[in-house]
Amino acid sequence: MNEALNMNDDKPHEECGVFGIFGHSDAAELVALGLHALQHRGQEAAGIVSFDGRKFNLERRLGLVGDSFSHESVISRLRGQAAIGHNRYATTGDTVLRNVQPFFADLSGGGLAVAHNGNLTNATALRRRLVANGAIFQSTSDTEVLVHLVATSRETRLVQRLVDALRQLEGAYSLVTLTNKKMIGVRDPLGVRPLVLGEFDGCHVLASETCALDIIGAKFIRDVAAGEMVVITEEGIESHFPFPKAQSRFCVFEYIYFSRPDSIAEGRSVYECRRRIGEELAREAPVKADLVAPIPDSGTPAAIGYASTVGIPFELGIIRNHYVGRTFIEPAQRIRQLGVKLKHNANRGNIAGKRVVLVDDSIVRGTTSMKIVQMMRDAGAKEVHMRIACPPTTHSCFYGVDTPERDKLLAFDRTVEQMRAAIGADSLAFISMDGLYRAMGCSARDKTSPQFCDACFTGEYPTRLTDQVELPKERQLSLLAEGM
Ligand code: SF4
Fold first, then answer.
1. Which among 295, 305, 301, 433 is positioned nearest to 368, based on CA atoms?
2. Residue 352 contacts by C-beta under 8 Å, 6 or more apart in sequence?
């Protein structure tokens, strides 16, 4: 073990969280709280746009929501009864202030602010066309493409212009937009990323997850449906379905890892799904051991399910230091090489001499898994068995989740036995695809029309991947560098 250990180093990262409220005198402050509850969806930057009846007010900052939006001086500049906000984890475009959302543009007919969770799979192709027609981009984010498409639409009314723009997009998007009269929420036709509708103090709220409704005491009304556009005004709410109907393909990884366990997504408790995954995994891959320990924190519900099903005690084998923030100064390389356990440490008294089952939500590159197995052995574990609460991750995500290039994935070209040998465990098992679907309450995966997006396990992407097909990676990077 020669590097500092951080369990989140080798995880896929969700790109964004969105939140909006319409018609409340404390709109910006409520948005800041909502974004705080969604901090797990993006920690690199946050922004809020409000409308005060006369003008739009915009604050965008790098860093955590609490660091940027807990000051009265910042919130007081975000006057108005309507506001939307965004947490960002950068996968498209660098983390520079010009890429931080919400995006705002003064269009003919009024201002438009956009907060986007997801990723467009034809953004580069669209951007190239727009630039060829004279558009000037201010950021490298794919979300700005949408703003340009709205700006150049030939439709006259803003909602129609937005629909016109959305019909040109491919990929995944859950959007919250704000105009001087409306707050609009939209999910892509397959509903890959989440978006929920709530009510607080007589006002409508839109949020990526229900945990963001809970933080302000808002009532959950329902999920915004796949392909649905909800238009919220002073008169109330209208629902539109502007796209051809399609089988919804919600991201199954939201249940495995991204969403907070206290959220309810598409009618399922995220915590319950994770616990049931652990139960299925135990039925598929039991092992004789002395204790079951989670990889903190997202492996915990699956470990509880696994332990209760095999009848082995659930114990904490790894202890997390909760006081390591992003501001902690990373130790110098010389110290790191000594194996500093900055965030996590083995619970030696529980581990020494024991046969340990470690339950983790996923394996991406495998680098962290190797360190954890070694950490368990260093703490005296007699055997270390790894159980993974998702199938092997064999493909990259193009829908707003930061995963490495395919050939960097541990499962890319390895059998389970080769992966076991690579991470140094005594045994390794992943939940099967059908087991995962059973844990979601389905009888099995419908092979002709799967109920979820599971492309990172199957390679069966539910939308066109125009940019991947038409533009080799190098070309895309050079286009981005050229600002195209
Ligand atoms: Fe989710 Fe994987 Fe589909 Fe990406 S490819 S949307 S992470 S299931």
1. 295
2. 379, 380, 381
Could you tell me the two tokens for 272? 């319950």
Q: Is pLDDT above 90 for 11? A: no
Chain centroid, CA 377 distance in Å: 32
Distances in Å between the alpha carbon of 392 and those of 279, 413, 416, 426?
A: 18, 11, 8, 18
Give per-residue pLDDT as tens, 406-436: 999 999 999 999 999 999 999 999 999 999 9
Do residues 135 and 156 touch, judged by C-beta distance below 8 A? no
User: Token pair for residue 244?
Assistant: 């051809």
Tell me, what DSSP letter sits at residue 79?
A: -
pLDDT digits (tens, 9 = 90+) for 319-348: 987 776 544 445 565 555 455 566 788 999
Answer yes or no: is pLDDT of 484 > 50: no
CA of 403 to the centre of ligand 1 (A): 10
CA of 169 to the centre of ligand 1 (A): 18
pTM above 0.85, yes or no: yes
Asked if 111 and 180 count as a contact pair (C-beta separation under 8 A), the reply is yes
How far apart CA 13 and CA 258 sit, in angstroms, is 8
Q: How do beta strands 45-51 and 82-88 pair?
A: antiparallel
* Whether the CB of 397 sits within 6 Å of ligand 1: yes
For 150-173, write each residue's pLDDT tens digit.
Answer: 999 999 999 999 999 999 999 999
CA 11-15-21 angle, to 5 degrees, is: 135
Residue 102 · residue 49 · CB < 8 Å: yes
DSSP annotation string for 165-204: HHTT--EEEEEEEE-SS-EEEEE-TT--S--EEEEETTEE
Q: Which two tokens stand for residue 70?
A: 């807990």
Q: In the chain, what percentage of residues exceed pLDDT 90? A: 79
- By alpha-carbon position, which residue is closest to atom 6 of ligand 1? 251
CB 247 within 8 Å of CB 449:
yes
Alpha helices by DSSP H, 199-337:
210-216, 253, 270-284, 300-310, 333-336
Bridge-based pairing of strands 110-120 and 229-233 is unpaired
Chain-centroid distance, C-alpha 265: 13
The Cα 408–Cα 416 span in angstroms is 16
**How far apart are the C-alpha atoms of 403 and 393, rounded to whole Å?**
10
Question: Which helix (H) or strand (E) covers residue 200, if one does?
Answer: strand 196-200
To the query of whether residue 442 is one of the catalytic residues in this protein, the response is: no
Q: How confident is the model at residue 13 (pLDDT cuts 50, 70, 90)?
A: low
DSSP states of 231-244 as a string?
A: EEETTEEEEE--S-
Closest-CA residue, ligand 1 atom 2, reads 456
CA distances from 61 to 32, 85, 94 (A): 12, 11, 14
Rg, Å, the chain Cα set: 23
